Amino acid sequence: MTIRVAVVGATGRLGSVAADLIERTADLELVAALGSRNDYADMLGTDDEPSDVVLDVTLPAVSPDVVEYALDAGRNVVVGTSGWSEERLAALRSRLRDEPDRGVIVVPNFSLGSALGTAFAAAAAKYFDSIEIVEAHAATKIDSPSGTAVRTAELMARAREERGPVAAPHTDQRARGQQVAGIPVHSLRLEGIVAKQSVVLGGAGETLTITHDTTDSRAYAAGILHAIRSAPQARGLTVGLDRLLGL
Q1: In terms of domains, do 168 and 103 share one?
Q2: Do 98 and 142 share a domain, yes or no?
Q3: Distance in angstroms (rounded) separating the CA atoms of residues 2 and 157
Q4: Which of 110, 120, 149, 205 could form a disulfide with 145 if both were Cys (CB 3.0 to 4.6 A apart)?
Q5: CATH number, position 30
Q6: Set 137, 186, 212, 226: catalytic member
Q7: DSSP conformational letter for 104
Q8: 167-209: per-residue pLDDT in tens?
Q9: What range does the domain containing 36 cover?
Q10: Annotation marks residue 126 as catalytic
Q11: Between helices 221-230 and 112-125, what is the axis angle to 10°?
Q12: Among this protein's residues, is 196 annotated catalytic?
């Protein structure tokens, strides 16, 4: 079965990669590619070729409105936009409880390696008291910390609930980074970088560093395809590529 996809944010870096990928994939069809000048109604496709799934790769300030519009129109959604805080996710989760036939998949990072790196960090978090995250993206990335760093910190905190809070001294100093789920996160925005994240875990006499480095946007292809193919059957809210992969 062919899945008809509308990409909202198709003129952006990730959006253009996704639109091109969809056009080259036999079981997917690109029925709409929306930029900032398009009306939201364009994401619905046409009467002859209505969209089955909406892929949102816009901006943090725009994304919630895109998701709301798509759900109101009866479409399932894949969200590849950063900036979905726990508060936003909670509101979306609550809405979807009243719409059992609809589903939204929120993916902070479509890279398979990134999903694995986050899973490895969560597995290690329960064994170390000192943990910090350093993440780096291109200078054009608007939000910080990244959605991937937020997701990683939240999963690590959840994994170590029995052990207790991370040891994070001097958090009142701005140079110590932003606290996410009690874990300091440091964000770099530099030219020449696609995406990189290092989770540094420290213990007595040793450190463990789990690093994922994205060097090309092709790294997102497998995750984008997997999320889109999972979307028609999605129900409720699914957060993270790791959930789709069963990690």
Answers
A1: no
A2: no
A3: 40
A4: 149
A5: 3.40.50.720
A6: 137
A7: E
A8: 999 999 999 999 999 999 999 999 999 999 999 999 999 999 9
A9: 3-110+218-245
A10: no
A11: 90
A12: no
